[in-house]
Write a structure and sequence with these properties.
Length: 633
Amino acid sequence: MKLMSGILKSIKLPDDLKNLDDGQMIEAAGEVRKYMIQTVADNGGHLAASLGVVELTLALHSTFNSPRDRIIWDVGHQSYPHKLLTGRWDQFQTLRQHEGLCGFPKPEESEHDSFLTGHSSTSISAALGLAQARDYNGDDYKVLAVIGDGALTGGMSFEALNHAGHLKANVLVILNDNKMSISSNVGSMSAYLGRIRSDPKYSRLKKDFESFVNRIPWIGKKAVDFAERIKGGLKYLVMPGMIFEELGFTYFGPVDGHNITAVKRILKQADQMPGPVLVHVVTEKGKGYHYAEQSPEMFHGIGPFDLNNGKLLKNKKSASYTEVFGNTLINLSRKNPNIMAVTAAMTTGTGLTEFAKEFPDRFYDVGIAEQHAVTLSAALAAGGMRPVVAIYSTFLQRAYDQILHDTCIQSLPVVFAIDRAGITGEDGETHQGLFDISYLRSLPNMSIMAPSNENELQNMLTTALNQKIGPVALRYPRDKVEGVELGSPQCIPWGKGELLRQGNDLLILAAGTVVNSALTAYEKLFWQGIKTAIINVRFIKPLDEDLIIYWAQKCRRIITIEENVLAGGFGSGVMELFEKHGLCLPIKRLGIDDQFVEHGKRSNMLAAYNLDSEGIYKEAMAFTGGKAVEGQS
Ligand SMILES: Cc1ncc(C[n+]2csc(CCOP(=O)(O)OP(=O)(O)O)c2C)c(N)n1
């Protein structure tokens, strides 16, 4: 679908928007929406957030001068209208496809993407940094951060607001308040924004209360002080944006974010103000597409769907690892009242929706606050609970020190349910889960498991919740399950791997679901005369030393496979083990070699990095020269 027949035919760059009158802007908004809905219906993507900011994006680009003025989109999942209005209309159909447009702002892709985003709550810090560099260099361009009310729950946002107020920096923060994070937003700040949104009620209350206080007769200083104090306190309750004012920002709003004229007017006013300014824009997530308005959470990030009825195209036949994790946790929690679950704004994404319903007093959604989630969990463990903190691999990176300092040093029994570990697919570089083995393996007291199928996942979760020695990380992929039968959950032997195939020409050590690809490769290698031993290690830490050393000595050529970067990963652990045992054997490590992995379908990207069965076979043939070990076969 080309869709270049209307008003947007004349829009090549944001500057062209400046010639449109308000009526034409509304027309343009309709065209942007239509094209986004159609494209996401085909490719999948983050639709609801982008639909909510169409008018805001038009107003921003017609008021400011991108790329000279810098606009930073927090998280960046709402940047589709920005992409469409900044010269990427023709490529938009390639959104999220390998070598196509990225689903997030990417400076490499366009000069209009002034800073890379993907992880939440970074935009105000980034805007402040650019603003400081600008001032130091004597430039005068504008710097803007567009941040959602969900992203505002992240600690970094507050750190940056605090600093910006201190520096009195010229930065413009646009708060895009749609009441939603991925699901309903949580926390006191969210409640505060809610009070501002319903401002008329509070304004009336303020007026009534002030006239009441003013009518208090003179009955001594104490009463007057008291009245003043109440008035002061009331100010925080009733004056919109008072919190931001106290942080040193000039507050504008709230303004209806779907009224382009009103948004443009307020942006122009804000632009005149020196120092840090915050414009509070109220929008509706999913605006303009009935099904997304009805189910903004479902349309936050969605696969290809039928745009006539909003239904997903692919019928879900098999469950995902996420679902198996969620169901197992419920089953285990029914028996153990000390199990608690913690998530950082990803209740549905981490499979905890049903848990939250069944055990509301044992469940915490802390907002986009991974650091807090981990320390909270560590302290829950210190208080005798068995917390399971479920966070995607990529977002857990945020909480490294909380894992090390608050959890590992005290060896607290926190279970880290690391979803989306490995190659995650269409979201690309910012969302790959390719570092957790490296960043966790180096931490004393930490154990790491990786299931090769859903039955192992439930058994590993059971094992993790039954051990008493310290923190355990359980990493599993963003994928459908293998289709094996689920037995009743049971503990697996601690620190033990599983020999799946015997052979004496080559040893494959695999961690996670790559075990299954190795098993497929085994057959082809067998027909080439290479008898391969395969071990599903199950435990990345501690490694099953006896099993691995025995088979390594027997086969004398070793391949390790992991969905992780090679540096510091599972293969590195095996090499360290060989060094410890004085073994000097040829070893080939398959994984990601010192680079970021771009966006593209998970299966395609696994193939691109030789982590599917064909790639493993090819690598094994190259490594062995296609020959059995001499004298052994
Ligand atoms: C550090 C981090 N944790 C979690 C996420 C996953 N995530 C992406 S968008 C989002 C909600 C953002 O809400 P908001 O900022 O209000 O934007 P909206 O989608 O409502 O427009 C979350 C939790 C993330 N991108 N980064």
